[in-house]
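G., before I forget:
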Amino acid sequence: MMMHFDLAQTAPAAAPVPCQDASYCQQCDVRARAICGTLEDDERAALNRLGRRVMVQAGQTVMWEGDDATIVANVIEGTLKLSASTGDGREQIVGVVYPSDFIGRPFGRSTPHSVTALTDARLCLFTRGAFDGFARTHPELGHRLLQRTLDDLDRARAWMLLLGRKNAREKIATFLLDMSHRLAGEGAGPLDSFALPLSRQQVADVLGLTIETVSRQMTDMKRAGIIALPNRRTVDILDRDQLACCAEGA
Amino acid sequence: MMMHFDLAQTAPAAAPVPCQDASYCQQCDVRARAICGTLEDDERAALNRLGRRVMVQAGQTVMWEGDDATIVANVIEGTLKLSASTGDGREQIVGVVYPSDFIGRPFGRSTPHSVTALTDARLCLFTRGAFDGFARTHPELGHRLLQRTLDDLDRARAWMLLLGRKNAREKIATFLLDMSHRLAGEGAGPLDSFALPLSRQQVADVLGLTIETVSRQMTDMKRAGIIALPNRRTVDILDRDQLACCAEGA
DNA sequence: CCCCCCTTTTGACAGAGGACAAGGACAGTC
DNA sequence: GACTGTCCTTGTCCTCTGTCAAAAGGGGGG
């Protein structure tokens, strides 16, 4: 039974509704890649008893920047954004998460950034207290989480170079190449055609640009024959080498 | 016996020279705050046998971006920068590390950014293989490392907001406030006077600005009576409230 | 099938910050 | 104390990107 995720339930008072059916994990699409992938069957069953499956609709915010960190989750399906913002409303997307990624801030007091669904999404949700306790007593899970966090940190720092030192053209090109890799499935090569899970405004928020600059740069690249834009959301990479050159500043 | 860190030894072939004197850890200034802080005495002694103490001079690079990740270390004393750069030499500082911080990329193939000493520094150095093995068999160490990595990730993402969405004035103000907190000792409040461990160029590289813009903004704030700059490296915060306003964009 | 709303694109203009250049200050050396 | 190299500051100009405004395009509902 899939429960529908009610926004009101994101409040600290949300009552966790444990998932009864222990067979869920067996069918889980992302089990192998998620942090629970290397747990023994009985351990995973125990973890499963702590969590619940929820759906979130595109646009719904699962956690708010600065709130008490009361939940964590694995992403089963869909795409979500992590975002931070200034007091006067300027927004920066600090991460985009995909199926098998982990969201939330374990072992901490408050959530440092908001988490919002970009598409309809399915999550495997845990209360933070229950998850923290489980992770502390299951080193294998902690280790997977550590590896994933180290990878996230590397990615965040690579993005800092982009935000601080690249110009608009380089940012767009780097972004498109990154998407072409991240949207590819397990072990598959980069995609030459894909649907962006982000609107132009959201692309701007990832890159620290305005929507107009994003639009102009993409149109320029289209005119240069480097990419094609058959409709609003899909991107075809026509000349990957040249796109890589743009990303490097050449 | 303190060994001097030879740059050539950063090469993969570097022979680890174990530290014989197990009492080192007892006297270690940062033991309580470092990731080894919660280990039992015998465990810490075992870890100690895997590592060696080294000195690095200001300006020396301990690891190079893209190199095989062969070493990790705890910072005992001094300040170091983590930096990434584009093919054509633009640089972005993606982190500044202080005593008790951990550096290097455990459980990974290559180092994603360079590590360079800003001041003379003392490190407690491990080969990555030895450290990885130890961490895998000592969950408590892994857990401390996880907490630290989660904190680093939060900081990196907060900095992404600064890099992507703040203007020069806000960046400088945020940076100065951050420094005033990070340079304060254990549990102490923020400092109203401190010596920057960074040159103007390095401040620019942290904030994604040019050295001229950094200089101009700091002079402007000095003229506005918000800060004083008694010499090149020291900063006095005269009006913290106003500085906080600058940081927020007000 | 048309209409309406929202997203995206395009245009014109302005301003923040970068690039280049020169002058000034400071620390270490002789 | 003069010298010298490095780091920092200041000045001028220019460009990239942001801002504001309007037009164009697309998708969903009636």
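Helices of chain B lie at 24-27, 41-50, 128-137, 139-165, 168-182, 200-207, 211-223, 240-248. Chain B touches chain A through 44 residues (CB under 8 Å).

More on Monday.
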